[in-house]
């Protein structure tokens, strides 16, 4: 895709889709690489970083976020900044402060795009860009990827720099990639990865080597339905069908119950988000809380009463949980489950007091595991469902290889949303 092609599609369709908060004309970058979008949580020099809020997080950033700069240096072209849940704190993709994008799979009903990287997923799913940057603290790349029918790739920590990305919970935050296919997501990760500062010490990810890996003979664990909690019947059916298709690649898929259910990570992950987030954003909330999304304010305020002692204990418990789970997972090459237990509901039906979309994704952040969401089918109502593949610590290569192998047999290849109903013509 060229920048001109991207701008033409944005002009035609984004008036209703509302994936973008700002479009760059001309595009940033002088190369001839893929066209990408940037979640509005990442700094771009001289351009306000909105963060999904009415008051910008940074009015005039002095430099590009490291991930953005690496893409520009590699010849990728940036076409604009995309919507996010306010301060990235929500999985539905709603935003009562500045508005929420439309899920492109339904032009008649405004459905949840998934969050918090909502606009990035919508932009990719609607074919407005080749790929997009997102951040993932509890599923914020993988959730919108699943609900919008695209690929969402979250690496383990220490692989991609967070410099220039405004934080939610520093102990959980990661930068990830959204794209139409696994190869593009993997190549984006390859570009943005690698040592950069004291926090980013791992060597660069070799996308081509990962995409060329054979998966025949790999041994995978898949969580049985009875150990996944409440799952929509259509999601369950598509999940089991995805496992059968994956077996065609030569892998062994064994139904196994992990030592802890994935949703046991929801509460401790949530405590870390609230406690760390409150410490970071307290002054902003106290100054601007009245014009913020009220549900976002409530989530942060949960962290107000978390003492330093309790937070320290939570980090210690997390380290113990990681040791136990990593030891169990070492017997397998990956762990499979539905990315989300339900497909995207109508925005009007969203219950902000619940967070079902992140119930099966938060574990990857809490346990610091790489993970990918790959489309695995549509419900009878025409909404996408994702298969999540989690890998062993720091084993992004196997996650990508498995995602690519599944993509080849998934039956999804080339499927896109019909966005004609969003056209301004």
Structure report:
The chain is of the alpha/beta class and 425 residues long. The protein starts with a helix and ends in a 16-residue tail after the last helix. The longest helix has 23 residues. Helix 8 packs across helix 9 and helix 8 packs antiparallel against helix 10. The chain has one domain: Amidase signature (AS) enzymes, CATH 3.90.1300. The chain has an 11-stranded mixed sheet with strand order 1-3-2-4-6-5-10-11-9-7-8, with helices on both faces.
Counting DSSP H or I runs of 4 or more residues, the number of helices is 12
Q: Write down the domain tally.
A: 1
Structural class: alpha/beta
CATH H-level name... which superfamily? Amidase signature (AS) domain
Shape: globular
Keywords:
425 residues; alpha/beta; eleven-stranded mixed sheet; Amidase signature (AS) enzymes
Task: Set out the fold topology.
Elements (H helix, E strand, L loop, with lengths): L2 H15 L2 E9 L6 E5 L26 H8 L3 E6 L35 H8 L5 E6 L5 H7 L2 E4 L19 E6 L2 H11 L14 H5 L7 E4 L10 H15 L4 E4 L10 H23 L5 H8 L6 H22 L4 E5 L23 H5 L4 E8 L5 E7 L5 H14 L16
Parallel strand pairs: 2-3, 2-4, 7-8, 7-9
Antiparallel strand pairs: 1-3, 4-6, 5-6, 5-10, 9-11, 10-11
